[in-house]
Amino acid sequence: MNERNLLIVSTSTVHGKPYLSYCEETIKSFFEGAKEVIFIPYARPGGISHDEYTAIAAKKFNELGFKMRGLHEFEDPKSALAVASGVFTGGGNTFVLLDQLQKLGLIETIKTRVSEGMKYMGTSAGSNITGLTINTTNDMPIAHPETLDALALVPFNLNPHYLDPDPTSKHMGETRETRIKEFHTYNNQIVVGLREGSWLRVEGEYIRLEGPLSARIFEQGKAPYELTPEDDFNFLLK
Amino acid sequence: MNERNLLIVSTSTVHGKPYLSYCEETIKSFFEGAKEVIFIPYARPGGISHDEYTAIAAKKFNELGFKMRGLHEFEDPKSALAVASGVFTGGGNTFVLLDQLQKLGLIETIKTRVSEGMKYMGTSAGSNITGLTINTTNDMPIAHPETLDALALVPFNLNPHYLDPDPTSKHMGETRETRIKEFHTYNNQIVVGLREGSWLRVEGEYIRLEGPLSARIFEQGKAPYELTPEDDFNFLLK
């Protein structure tokens, strides 16, 4: 049985509010009982160092009552994960993040530990890697992981920071929806477009959408559609 | 001596105007004397077929007085390129485009032919691949080329459809400038942000910006800056 316990968050920060503040009650109850949460800083937003990034996350987690260390602080990250009760992977660049997890040989470690019940929270890039692959990231490919296969903690793909087309825009670059449709020319997994302010809560075979917004669901060969927090999302885990 | 002769265009289409119309005089004079222009349709915008995409490009090129066939129509694309006097690579998905060129073994063929004087025009993805690598594409990584190394027809990277930050936006995804700065955490080549409506014209060791707009230049460890069509761009080829 898969004991997964996941918090898949679109963004760490919503406009005009401090880091992680809009979902802090959710984080507190999600990690309740965890002595310490391990932070995975490898996505390096804006290229900041692992220490700098860990300090930002730890400040917030300390406020919420959790100890926090960065995974990079451990001489043997595999052993650290082997005993961790909770992990938070921050956002940044999804390619850099996945590349580093692959190079450190941590993909299987995290998958196994999550299936055993280690709590996993991600924001943005940290959420992207919970899907089957990172083919639906919005990030610039500034690193080149060996494969785009990700943690596959859920059997679909994520598109965090999902952005609706701007009808007033004169920019000719592809809309997010166009990009995901192109993805479905070559791939058939469902993609969940998760808007800023939304998160998915996964417990074993149950999944629900939380936050004030609906999510946009992309299935190959179908028109995209919206599901609200009141709708049933469990088919996504089948 | 490098006989390169390039037209590196940000976008095929500017807002409110038909396909390639805004730069048609430039295209006409660029390909002047070419009996036929070969179209490279592999970027497949929106996932359309090679035939469909070639029909769109050929319609426009025929209007401008050029014959056009798609490279996919030739049994042996290498031989077709060996005698081609001009090539146009259309936009779409940069990963899909590069992956296909790699799989068909055409990277070296195009590089060699361009150095011998075969005219090369690209728009969007077709411009992206003229740079050293495609690490600075805006596209979604829906394919996974073996390497992100590109044609290196010029010794820098491109960012077509360059988009200035929108000061009114409440979206928390990274701005284009932030993404390119992240790129420079790991890479040191210059990136040219080429706005829609702009193109670079390269002849041997000379390069200039054309169109009504300035370009944004990103150098590692420097604040980004603007260069106008009146400025000297030749340092980019040094």
Automatic annotation (TrEMBL), chains A, B:
<keyword id="KW-0963">Cytoplasm</keyword>
<keyword id="KW-0378">Hydrolase</keyword>
<dbReference type="InterPro" id="IPR029062">
    <property type="entry name" value="Class_I_gatase-like"/>
</dbReference>
<comment type="similarity">
    <text>Belongs to the peptidase S51 family.</text>
</comment>
<keyword id="KW-0224">Dipeptidase</keyword>
<dbReference type="Pfam" id="PF03575">
    <property type="entry name" value="Peptidase_S51"/>
</dbReference>
<protein>
    <recommendedName>
        <fullName>dipeptidase E</fullName>
        <ecNumber>3.4.13.21</ecNumber>
    </recommendedName>
</protein>
<dbReference type="InterPro" id="IPR005320">
    <property type="entry name" value="Peptidase_S51"/>
</dbReference>
<dbReference type="GO" id="GO:0005737">
    <property type="term" value="C:cytoplasm"/>
</dbReference>
<dbReference type="GO" id="GO:0008236">
    <property type="term" value="F:serine-type peptidase activity"/>
</dbReference>
<keyword id="KW-0645">Protease</keyword>
<keyword id="KW-0720">Serine protease</keyword>
<dbReference type="GO" id="GO:0016805">
    <property type="term" value="F:dipeptidase activity"/>
</dbReference>
<dbReference type="GO" id="GO:0006508">
    <property type="term" value="P:proteolysis"/>
</dbReference>
